[in-house]
Amino acid sequence: MIARTTILIYGLISYALAVASLGYAILFVGNVGVSPSLDTVRQTDPWSALLIDLGLLAAFAIQHSVMARPAFKRLWTRVVPAAAERSTYVLASGLLLGALVYFWQPLGGVLWQFEAEAAIVALYALFAMGWALVLVSTFQIDHFDLFGLRQVWLHFRGEAYRPRGFVKPFLYRYVRHPLYVGLLIGIWAAPTMTVAHLVFAAMCTAYIAIGSRLEERDLEAALPEYAEYKKAVPMFLPGAEKKPAVESAPVNA
């Protein structure tokens, strides 16, 4: 019982840290109430700053992708309890996201900046909508499973964990990756676009393009239904492909 309680506490701490890091990162990207933020004026050598920033983004992307692969999970669960595997992934993601924000080096150089109040309000509304879409998408597929809480809770209760499989969430009937769509909106909807913001947004977009395909490869291998779902529902843009509608979507998309 002590071991189960320890794993439960570990899962709760991992979740809290990840949510706190994500919340701060959203404010950081939007330049809302935090300093320094993503668009803070540069005070260091631009090339050194760029190398540091690219290194931070690469570290986060590598961790996020490698630890999500089934082969890594099989090896990793020889070291950590299976019930804590997802929480460990969440913890590592939260720590690296926090490090990215903390050690980020401003690059300065404004590429464009909207001055009209209506445009600024509209872009911040779009920014908020994007991040809200991220949050809603997590609950559509099972927020608590995605962040490892369901796994540690079932382990605490002495119940076996079973993946959710396919569910029928609303957003996933229109695009396969609404969570990624929300991320893209959140990082690109900016009244002020600096060099740093462009680097951040471009690298995140590249990661999403690559990571989503790696994720889909794993889903096709694990879920027989995913191949038909993939044919029927566009990846990012609703209505981009005229195919028969389906009722199911993967829990990990």
Written description of the protein model:
There is one protein chain. The protein has 253 residues and is mainly α. It has one domain (2-250). Helices cover 63% and strands 4% of the residues. The protein is built from 10 helices and 4 strands, in the order ααααβαααβαβααβ. The strands form 2 sheets. Strands 1-3 form a two-stranded antiparallel ribbon. It has a two-stranded antiparallel sheet with strand order 2-4. The two termini are 33 Å apart. Mean pLDDT is 90; it is low at 245-249.
Give me a quick take on this structure.
This protein is mostly helical and 253 residues long.
Pattern of helices and strands: HHHHEHHHEHEHHE
Q: What would the principal axes of the Cα set say about the shape?
A: globular
Tell me the helix content. 55-70%
- Low-pLDDT stretches are 245-249
Question: How much strand content do the residues show?
Answer: under 5%
Distance between the termini: 33 Å
Helix-strand category? mainly alpha
What is the typical, i.e. mean, pLDDT? 90
Instruction: Describe the largest sheet.
Output: 2 strands, antiparallel
Q: How large is the count of helical segments?
A: 10
Query: What Rg, in angstroms, do the CA atoms define?
Result: 19 Å
Number of domains: 1
* Count of distinct strands: 4
- Looking across the biggest beta sheet, what order are the strands in? 1-3
Please give a handful of descriptors for the protein shown.
mainly alpha, 253 residues, 10 helices, two-stranded antiparallel ribbon, 4 strands
